[in-house]
Specification:
Length: about 230
């Protein structure tokens, strides 16, 4: 999928994924997409709800697309959408994929190029589809998103433990060495060499606390839904 710039604020064949859609007027949709070169955008898909719409069945999450759009405002006009295959996600990982979309919509600012994060998102979806270390892959995506936002794990001193306090990693100076997060765990997070099993579970809890802070402690809807489903 190649990107092509055109005059009059038109963009053609931009690699993209649908993150979220919601109704707009009687027959149209607002489509929140993650694009490779323009970051997160909101596009109006005019007439998308009509039975004979060119977009019918195409504006689905987790499908590689190439979108064309135009316009000068905050919300662009979707002019063309091309389908580039489907990633067959097993039911066991669907909520993980929807969780990725939710935190992107809630944390990622609009209209900022994020080619590395786009690649990370695509790679994670493929790993989820292939059942290739799905839990570790999801942790790496979360870390890539936090790093893109400027919240990555900093270089820390070896041989000590840290705690995440109000958006910063603070060295434990008045608590026993057994408390907090060990420097080698944070190093594994920073270097993306998380091991499956116990370390991945530890990292999951750490990242959950960090993301919760940047969401102002507001709940993640997909986590809530998954928790409810586990009751049945």
């Amino acid at each position: 999928m190649n990107n092509q710039r055109e005059p009059d604020n038109r963009v053609s064949h931009q690699p993209a994924f649908v993150l979220h859609t919601y109704p707009w007027k009687e027959t149209s949709l607002i489509v929140d997409v993650l694009t490779r070169d323009y970051g997160r955008l909101s596009l109006v898909a005019r007439g998308a709800k009509r039975p004979m719409s060119q977009y019918r069945g195409m504006l689905c999450p987790f499908c590689p697309l190439a979108v064309s759009f135009s316009g000068k405002g905050d919300i662009k006009i979707l002019t063309k959408c091309e389908w580039h295959g489907t990633l067959m996600l097993p039911d066991t990982v669907l909520m993980s994929a929807f969780y990725m979309n939710e935190i992107l919509v809630r944390l990622l600012p609009k209209r900022e190029p994020v080619p590395k994060l786009f690649h990370s998102y695509f790679t994670t979806l493929r790993n989820l589809a292939d059942k290739n270390k799905p839990h570790v892959s999801l942790r790496i995506f979360e870390l890539d998103l936090l790093e893109t936002l400027g919240y990555g794990v900093p270089e820390l001193r070896e041989g000590t433990n840290y705690q995440f306090v109000r958006g910063d990693w603070i060295q434990n100076t008045q608590t026993p060495e057994s408390t907090g997060v060990a420097w080698y765990t944070l190093a594994a997070m920073r270097e993306r060499r998380i091991k499956e099993g116990a370390q991945e579970k530890e990292v999951k809890g750490i990242i959950r606390d960090v993301i919760s802070f940047y969401l102002d402690d507001k709940p993640v809807n997909t986590r809530k839904i998954l928790s409810e489903l586990k009751k049945f």
